[in-house]
# Entry
Amino acid sequence: MIRDNKQLGFTLIEMMVAVAISSILITMAVPSLRSMVEKNKISTVTNEISNALFFVRSEALKRRMNVFMCVSNSNGSGCEADESLFDYAHGWLIYMDCNSNGNYDNSTLTCDLNNDGINDTAELLKVHEDLDTNLTVTGNGNYTSNIGYRMNGRVRGIGGSLTIDLLSIATGGVTAKKVVVSNTGRIRTQIVSP
# Structure
């Protein structure tokens, strides 16, 4: 019987080469992975904002009443009043505006919402919590603090957009998308060029 004294396994040099090649491949893949995660985060928030606006419009049509979406205050009990905090990433409220003043009147008896002959407070339809902390969602023009739809499905005021920005971890730049609302109330998304 002849014995073979060969040992099975890696040499130290072979293992160092394998680790070096693996680290090079991982270094190349991580920025692409971060970029993909950031793009997915932007797309997710864009879809959430778009869906919220579709909901606002459909509720205005269904209820035959003005319906608004506003930037939520810190505790989610009302609309934000401080202009420096007008960022939909802090969350938003969707409410009916039965007295047509555009404000969320959560304590004022405004109109009869359930047709029982007694005035009710403005009805809060939905509350959305904070989004990711490195996101900003800011509106332009009429949309800095709220967006309203009339009972005919048209936007209140003139159209505008909400810009969703993400401070990029991978590149240090900003990745952005817009949710654009036309005067007729149509909602669409668009990529913002860097």
Notes: Strands lie at 67-71, 92-96, 109-111, 120-121, 124-128, 135-139, 146-149, 160-167, 174-181, 187-191.
